[in-house]
Design goal:
Elements (H helix, E strand, L loop, with lengths): L1 E6 L7 H15 L3 E6 L11 H9 L4 H12 L2 E7 L7 H10 L6 E4 L2 E4 L5 E7 L4 H7 L1 H15 L7 E5 L7 H20 L9
Parallel strand pairs: 1-2, 1-3, 3-6, 6-7
Antiparallel strand pairs: 4-5
Helix pairs in contact: 1-7
């Protein structure tokens, strides 16, 4: 099984990086072939430019975008790891979706209707957040965030997230709580890899 990780955090000492390491460790233990796209380390260009728009018009995919699309095409399952800043992804990951999840790759217009093209791919996501879960629910941010990610991105591409795990109040918890979170990461990854019923919307 080929597993792709899309990772977006600039700090190698962050808890996001600990999640990355735990994910790689568990995937490797389960026998998966793992590729990691560390967007900051790769210096991925997240800016959707005029050149990107012209690429869509001509159908000629830009070389750096083609590399990322090839990684997705070759993977069986894909896990995203990033923080949530100001209610959404870092600009680096938002730009990845802008530039890589393009028309005729992630979706198409067929008979005047949008159709998702990633229905054979299985996606999962880990996020960290400074706010508490209670605050996110009270302000309505949880509902908004889930709609944007699950419906607006992955659902639109015909591949709803198999799991979406958010770790809250990450800067307030202690070492033991973080160790427990990393244990939960490994359990989530194991289910994602081994349990065929973990994505119930796939036949």
């Amino acid at each position: 099984m080929k597993h792709l990780i899309i990772y977006a955090h600039p700090n190698p000492d962050s808890f996001n990086h600990a999640i990355l390491e735990a994910t790689i460790e568990q995937l490797t233990a389960l026998g998966a072939v793992v590729n990691v796209r560390d967007l900051y380390k790769l210096n991925f260009n997240p800016v959707l430019s005029l050149e990107d728009f012209r690429s869509k018009e001509t159908g000629v995919v830009l070389p750096d975008v083609k590399v990322e699309q090839d990684f997705i095409n070759e993977a069986d399952k894909i896990t995203f790891i990033s923080p949530i800043w100001w209610g959404l992804f870092p600009a680096m990951l938002k730009g990845y979706f802008d530039r890589v999840f393009t028309k005729d790759f992630a979706y198409a217009m067929i008979d005047h209707n949008y159709t998702g093209l990633l229905g054979e791919k299985k996606f999962g996501m880990f996020n960290t957040l400074d706010a508490t879960k209670e605050d996110m629910i009270r302000t309505g941010m949880s509902v908004a965030f889930n709609h944007i990610i699950n419906d607006g991105i992955f659902g639109f591409c015909n591949s709803p997230l198999c799991f979406h795990r958010i770790f809250y109040a990450i800067n307030s918890v202690g070492d033991q709580e973080r160790l427990q979170m990393l244990s939960e990461v490994k359990k989530e990854v194991e289910k994602f890899v081994l349990d065929p019923t973990y994505c119930p919307f796939f036949g």
